[in-house]
Amino acid sequence: MLNAQWLETFTVLSETGHFTRAADRLGMTQPGVSQHLRKLEAQLGQPLISRHGKGFELTSAGEAVAAMGLARRAEERALREGLRADDPEAGEVVVACSGSFALLLHPVLLARMRGAPRLVLRLIATPQEDIPAGLLEGRFDLGVLGHAPTHPRLDAQRIGREELCLVLPAEAPDAPLRLEDLDARGFIGHPDGFGHADELLAANFPEEFAGADRLRLRAFVNQIGQICAPVAEGIGYTLLPRSGVDAFPAREKLRVAPLPRRCHHELWLAGRRGREMPARFASVAQDIRAVAARLDAD
Questions:
Q1: CATH class of 162-264
Q2: This prediction's pTM
Q3: What is the pLDDT of residues 90-126, one digit of tens each?
Q4: Domain 4-84 has CATH 3.40.5.10
Q5: Residue 216 bridge partners (DSSP)
Q6: What CATH code is assigned to 90-159+265-297?
Q7: Where are the domains of the chain?
């Protein structure tokens, strides 16, 4: 690599066209400027100037080196300015969370992007078990977890909780629910649905519930945004976190059944421990906390 100090001395020399003026600008002696020039020429193996009396002209190699010196100076200036200006509305942020939380968070992030043309947001809906590894590998900047991470290189703050909901059509009767009533409707399954059933139905129907594998399946939906669609049309029931219910476009067609034993999932905002949070991360984290607070208030 070229010596940075010698390169800057030669760049100033090429700008001023005079050894004495270059020395004055750099706070050096004229012999010092000459010495830097000789060392840079020795490093490159060819002359950079052609002397004519008391003046000189740049050789073709000298012109190329001077152009590189100016370019490097501009890059360093841009770097310093970028480090000083931590713009909350510029740069990229990658957020990972569950599919249901993503449905509720996405419109909030879109609103932020409308006012920040230079902000790039990537929202990744992914299984919970993939988020810690993605944070550690640098694929994700922020992650929303259902529990506090245990890895020593991850840090997290509890930002709220959301209820695990039993979702019925809006016209479903208010009478106390029995498991046989649910079976008569049929379960709208989804990838996380059976685990939700083992948690919520087991807590509320301990005598009748024999396991998620014994539920009468009416349909199975693999798209998070469409899980509530059959229920909204009066077909079956399903189990979802509150975020997935509240984000459904036809929310008025759904009813969350009141249950004697409510189940909640905690929400934690996680990132790499010790990493300084740029302003753009902090602004997006603020949006995530606001969405979590809405869920916790329900």
A1: alpha beta
A2: 0.68
A3: 889 999 999 999 999 999 999 999 989 999 999 999 9
A4: no
A5: none
A6: 3.40.190.10
A7: 4-84, 90-159+265-297, 162-264
